[in-house]
Design goal:
Layout lengths: L1 E5 L11 E5 L9 E10 L2 H7 L11 E2 L5 E3 L5 E4 L2 E2 L13 E2 L11 E5 L3 E3 L6 H4 L2 H15 L7 E4 L5 H12 L3 E5 L3 H10 L3 E3 L9 E6 L6 H6 L1 E9 L13 H6 L3 E4 L5 H14 L5 E6 L3 H10 L5 E5 L2
Parallel strand pairs: 11-12, 11-14, 12-13, 14-15, 15-16, 17-18
Antiparallel strand pairs: 1-2, 1-4, 3-5, 3-9, 3-18, 5-6, 6-10, 7-8
Helix pairs in contact: 3-4, 3-8
Length: 321
C-alpha cells in the first residue's frame, strides 16, 4: 500500500527523512481492527518523529501520522484514538502507553491497524477531513481547557500563538463553551483569523492584555512563557502542552508563581472518554476544526514543509488515494 513514512532520522533537517512509497499492508491480529483511511491530519508530533524524538531508529521505517478517520472492517465510519495501550487493550499488560507511530505504524497510508478499543464512531455531521483533525490537536486543546484548566462558561482564557492546531482548537472550543478568549500572534493575518474564530481580542505577542485571565493555554514555550505567567490572575492556571520555541525560558518567573499561588499544569493528549465528549461537543454545537489545506497523500511533503514553516492557520489534512 502507498504511504508516507520516516525512512531515516535527521535532527537538523527532518524532511530529509520523509519518503513516499509502498509499504506492507497491516496484518490481521487478535483484538486489533484494520481501518481504510479516508483522511489523516498532520501534527508537530510527526515532525518531531522525523527528528528522532519518541521514535527510535530501530523502529524505522515507520509510517507517520497519528490521526485518522475512515471505514472499519464492518463498513462503519470511524475515528481513531491515537494513544495505544492506555488501558492495556490490544497490547501486553506491562507495555507503557504510546502515541501511534512511536511503536506502531501510523495513519499516512491507505490502511492502518489499531486496537479495536481505539476505534470510535464518527458523527455523521462531521466530514472525514474534519474528524481526522480531532484526536491529537483538538483533543489536546479540549483536555487543556476543560480538564486541566477547569474553566467554566464566563471565565477568561489567553491562547498563545494563534495559528497552530492546538491554539486554533482552543480558540474555537473556548468560544463555543462561552469563554472570553484572548489570543496572541506575531502575524497580523493570524490575529485577524483569531478574531473570526471567536477571540474577543487578538494582540501582538507579548502585548499587555486588557485584563488578567483565569487560564493560559501555552504551546509556544520559551518565547511566551513570561507573558503567560504575567497574564494570569492570582490563583490562575497555566496549562502547557508544547514548547515549539524551546523549553528554556530566560525568566522562569518563580517569584510570581509562588507569590500569586499560580498553578502550572502539564498536559498531553487526552483520554478516549474525552475524545468521545469532544466528538459529541462538536456535533452538538456545530463547532468545526479549522483546516488550512487538504492535500492528497502523495503531496505529503508539501504539507510537512508548510507545517515546519509555521505559515499555516489550522490543520493540514491528507486524503488517502
Amino acid at each position: 500500500m502507498f504511504a508516507a513514512y520516516a525512512a531515516r532520522i535527521d535532527r537538523d533537517r527532518p524532511l530529509n527523512g520523509l519518503e513516499l512509497g509502498e509499504r506492507p499492508a497491516p496484518e490481521s491480529r487478535p483484538g486489533w481492527t484494520t481501518v481504510n483511511v479516508r483522511a489523516a491530519s498532520l501534527n508537530h508530533h510527526d515532525l518531531w518523529s522525523l527528528r528522532g524524538v519518541g521514535l527510535a531508529e530501530d523502529k524505522l521505517p515507520m509510517i507517520l501520522g497519528c490521526d485518522a478517520a475512515g471505514i472499519d472492517e464492518d463498513g462503519n465510519e470511524v475515528v481513531l484514538h491515537s494513544v495505544i495501550g492506555q488501558t492495556g487493550h490490544g497490547v501486553g499488560p506491562k507495555e507503557p502507553r504510546s502515541i501511534l507511530t512511536e511503536r506502531y505504524q501510523g495513519t499516512f497510508a491507505e490502511q492502518v491497524s489499531v486496537p479495536t478499543w481505539n476505534v470510535l464512531p464518527k458523527p455523521a455531521d462531521l466530514s472525514f477531513e474534519e474528524a481526522a483533525c480531532l484526536p491529537t490537536a483538538w483533543l489536546t486543546a479540549y483536555r487543556m481547557l476543560f480538564t486541566n484548566a477547569g474553566v467554566r462558561p464566563g471565565d477568561s482564557v489567553l491562547v498563545q500563538g494563534a495559528g497552530g492546531g492546538v491554539a486554533t482548537a482552543a480558540i474555537a472550543l473556548g468560544k463555543a463553551a462561552g469563554l472570553r478568549v484572548f489570543a496572541t500572534s506575531r502575524d497580523e493575518a493570524k490575529r485577524k483569523r483569531a478574531l473570526e474564530l471567536g477571540a474577543v481580542e487578538a494582540l501582538e505577542a507579548g502585548a499587555r492584555l486588557p485584563q488578567r485571565v483565569d487560564a493560559v493555554i501555552e504551546t509556544v514555550g520559551a518565547a511566551t512563557w513570561s507573558h503567560s505567567v504575567k497574564s494570569l490572575k492570582p490563583g490562575g492556571t497555566l496549562v502547557i502542552s508544547g514548547a515549539t520555541s524551546g523549553d528554556r525560558p530566560s525568566h522562569a518567573e518563580l517569584t510570581r508563581i509562588f507569590f500569586l499561588e499560580l498553578k502550572v499544569v502539564g498536559s498531553t493528549m487526552g483520554t478516549k472518554d474525552e475524545l468521545e465528549d469532544l466528538l459529541s461537543f462538536c456535533a452538538a454545537t456545530g463547532v468545526r476544526p479549522v483546516i488550512d489545506e487538504v492535500l492528497p497523500l502523495d503531496r505529503a511533503p508539501e504539507g510537512f514543509a508548510r507545517m515546519e514553516s509555521r505559515e499555516l492557520f489550522g490543520k493540514v489534512v491528507l486524503t488517502a488515494p
